[in-house]
Design brief:
The protein folds into 2 domains: 196 residues, Arc Repressor Mutant, subunit A (Orthogonal Bundle), CATH 1.10.10.10; 102 residues, 3-Layer(aba) Sandwich (D-Maltodextrin-Binding Protein, domain 2). The chain is 42% helix and 23% strand. The protein contains 10 helices and 13 strands.
Length: 306
């Protein structure tokens, strides 16, 4: 077993396919496949399972890769200390529902990394992909929400995927609207008052179960409904069409401006936002730093219970 083989295995898990990993690792795909085959034969487990969409990490493979990542981090620290004093290259990836605060925490992480080299990835993506990314170690951390409606279904998936969910904060439901929206100055809005305006929500693709929706009240039928796939488009439609979307009410203005405002939704429900990690895999130093930034951001929200 060599450090290079461990780097190859981590790269495949990170990029989700042998072909993409081979390109990123500057090795031919047949050579990469042979290296992983030899590694699996040596350790006596199957690390990956090939699927039509790429590869998935086996349960044994996830545990192995957790140890492998720790070995590589320690090796990098030794090299940076004794070989050429070059700072360690930081690697980190997070998958998240479309939350601006998750991006803010990512910005804080990158600013705090303190090295000349890093490769960090943030994926604002669909709920099912977040679970799949963390399960297959393409991301160290996943950010999503639970509520009374989806909790049982999601936690069953988490258990089946060897994932653990840790709450960050609890929020009352809000709507995001344009600052110029006719209802923007109200203290509280009912769903009936919003009925004449377009309801915007994030498309969940083929996994369009109500339980995977990023918005509560996902079973409610709206007269005007628009599905979008990214946050910038949703914000543009909020402004251009006087639309609304249901969320946590947390939108930092330092990166997002003041064109969109939150208004409390008149519902007796709670939204619990938290993070997913793989139970069998320890977090990298960058992963721990990201969670620290998330917790720092969430702490004042916990006291406000907005």
């Amino acid at each position: 077993m060599t450090l290079q083989q461990l780097r190859y295995a981590i790269g495949i898990a990170r990029h989700g396919s042998f072909s993409e990993a081979a390109t990123r690792l500057f090795i031919s795909q047949p050579s990469l496949s042979a290296a992983i085959k030899d590694l699996e034969a040596e350790v006596g487990i199957s690390i990956f399972t090939r699927t039509p969409r790429g590869v998935s990490v086996t349960a044994e493979g996830a545990e192995f890769l957790g140890y492998a990542r720790q070995v590589i981090e320690q090796a990098d620290l030794i090299e940076s200390r004794y070989r050429d004093a070059k700072p360690q290259r930081r690697l980190f990836s997070v998958s998240t529902q479309h939350y601006a605060f998750a991006v803010n925490a990512f910005v804080d992480l990158v600013r705090a990394i303190g090295t000349d080299e890093y490769e960090c990835t943030i994926r604002e993506t669909r709920t099912h992909e977040i679970i799949d990314d963390v399960k297959n170690l393409r991301s160290e951390v996943g950010i999503l929400y639970e509520c009374a409606f989806n909790k049982r279904v999601l936690e069953k998936l988490f258990a089946e995927s060897s994932l653990s969910f840790t709450p960050l904060f609890e929020s009352m439901p809000h709507v995001f609207v344009s600052a110029r929206h006719p209802l923007a100055q109200k203290r509280k809005i009912s769903l009936d008052e919003l009925e004449g305006y377009p309801c915007l929500s994030f498309d969940q693709g083929e996994h369009n179960s109500f339980h995977f929706a990023e918005e509560i009240q996902s079973t409610r039928v709206h007269k005007k409904s628009i599905k979008v796939s990214d946050r910038a488009t949703l914000f543009n439609l909020l402004i251009g069409l006087d639309g609304y979307t249901i969320s946590t009410g947390i939108l930092p203005s330092d990166l997002n401006g003041k064109d969109i405002v939150p208004v409390r939704l008149d519902l007796d429900e709670r939204i619990t936002v938290g993070y997913l990690v793989h139970r069998n895999v320890g977090l990298s130093a960058a992963g721990e730093m990201y969670l620290d930034h998330l917790r720092a951001f969430a702490k004042p929200r916990q006291s406000k219970k907005r």
